[in-house]
Amino acid sequence: MDEYKKLNKFDFTLEAVSSTLINFDKIENPSRSLNFFMGFDGYIDSLYNMVKNRKNVKEFEIYESMKDFGQKIVDTAGSSISIERAFKKEIGGGFAPNMARAISNMAPMAHVDLFGALGYPDINPIFKNLPSNVGLHSIGTPGETLALEFSDGKVMSQDFGGIFELDWETVIFRIGGRDKLISAFEKADAIGNGHWSLMPFMSSYFKHFLSEILPNVSNLKKKLFFLDPADLTKRSKEDIKELLLLLKKINDLIPVVLSVNDREVMDIARVVDLEEQLSIEKNNPTSYLSAGKKINSNLNLNYLVIHDPHFATISGVEQLKNFHYWITEGFTSKPKYTVAAGDHFNAGLLNALLLGMKPSESCVIANAATAIFVRTGQSPSPIELKRFISHYFDYINRDIDIFEIDNN
To answer: Distance (Å, rounded) from C-alpha 317 to C-alpha 257?
Structure first.
């Protein structure tokens, strides 16, 4: 731990890792069983590596970076190319299923109600492999994702299938009526939503939440409203501006957690007219140093989180005091899986915040969750989270790409 040097004036990694281990009993032995609502998407994800050279039937070299793969395509423009893909796995994915899977493993005492596009009228068997503490409620047919994974990112090509059918009226009908949704929100400690940019009707959901649903739910101030908006380049500046205004209104009723990655925050900065002031630089983690703090001075959400493979920041207001923390991540240059890494970060964050961990500690939990996932492709247990955090600075100081999951 003595080897770690703070990277900036907001870097709270040393203190947060230490206090997370001291307070880890809140994660390991929670005093109450949490309930989560997760909606409203669902995909069948097929994950692949892209083959660069094949030596024989069993041995081949893959494209490690998106840049090399993209350059191969650019260099072939005007002609044609054939690139083999090597299958990794198929899984029931999307924001809501991935969050449900991650939370249910990290918080075995929790219950997750998953309202998503899982197959309609019959649930697709691929989603029935989710842990037993996940309740399945299907509202539509899933989309399909062809995911190409590289060491420096991923390319996800979607066929949205029945996702585009899920307007407000359809969702309410298939849930079983407005009162059932109110009841589900009443039961939940956290209400999770994603991915907004891929769900064309989600802003309309939020408008109905404000007018019809949330006013009929008690104890809102003790709950959390979570949103991962996903790739904001897919939506117009006007759409994003409307979303931020809706989140401000929701935050007046229930504390909002808005979680974005290093690319998505640039689009938010443009919308709130802070892009030039922030000077966020692509592939330069330190340029994000105060981004969350400055952006949230405009949004005034309870929690604004920015995360990438190198760091996480959390900014907001708690007990009438503003806070802003930077937590360094245990980065690996050789991730084995990247699809759903953000969902694991978000699951760890949300669970920790609800269990009373400090914002900085919650980012340590979130970082550990995603760090384990990218190395193993599996959702960690509380014991595995603690083991990773106990060696947190080893993973920061050395590019360790291995973590052993206990499958017993």
So the answer is: 11
